[in-house]
Known about the structure:
By secondary structure, this protein is α/β, with parallel strands linked by helices.
Amino acid sequence: MENTQELKSFLSLPKDIVITTHRNPDGDAIGSSLGLQHYLANQGHSVKIVSPSEYPDFLAWMPAVNDIMVYDIEPEESQKEIEKADAIFCLDFNSLDRIDKVGEIVDKQKSLKVMIDHHLYPENFADHLISDTTASSTCEMVFDFICNMGHKHLMTQTIGDCLFTGILTDTGSFKYSTSAKLFRIVADLLDLGVDDYMLQDLIFNSMKEKQLRLLGHCLYNRMEILPEYGTGIIHLTKDDYSEYDIQRGDTEGIVNYLLKMKGIRMAAFIMEQPTIVKISLRSKGDFSVQEIAKRHFKGGGHKNASGGASFQGLEATLKKFKELLPRYQAHLVKPY
């Protein structure tokens, strides 16, 4: 880690600290933010988490999650917290546009900025850039950060619960981006008292009836399989959002069902929202969806999990996506 001693010196006295993470935060975003918050608060710092938007319901059980300030709901109070901060920790995002209006406020501050992130191509806006694109999750990196601060022995079960949550969700229950190092970290978290069965149950077995009905609708009415391109597509219309009262987090994980099919190497989930069409891409093996998201849909992410957006409307976006497939056909249909 860069400048470990400098950061240790800076954090040796109590500071006002803000932690922020990306819009539409997922398990890794919230888990890493809360894990770092509990660690820093235990060291005597005053810590606030500011999220651009609300977290999904399946994370509502997490310790101190209700203390997160949401800029969309409390813009003035959130701005005040950022402006008075001695340091701003930027977790699970690599560019300020990922935090929307919060990014404009953060950019103006003279306070120390620390980025901890595992996405490709990080922007150089932070004073301390802690980037590891080989890490499974930002939660894995927060674990490393605490260890590099010399405080592994001060980790608590509460911190462990938070970090395990992000690791679990970002790896798809240990299906992606795993390593021997990661499993050693998970073993350490279990030694802290983390109950892996309980957390799996809280995270993955908390669906509402409407979410299961939405999943059925997606698979029966909105799924299209293009076997010649090894690709599956699910789309949702604005009418679907209204009919199923889709809220933040309700579509979590639906795209992954397409990859359960033999011969499908790429999955696309294309969602028509009021002013934008959002695109979520997943892949198997060595086929990278990050390039497609970045080059064609102004997005990015990871090799096997990326996202983007389009302003062309649902039908035009579906057409554009399908027209891209022939250029990737040789990679999508080859065995791996």
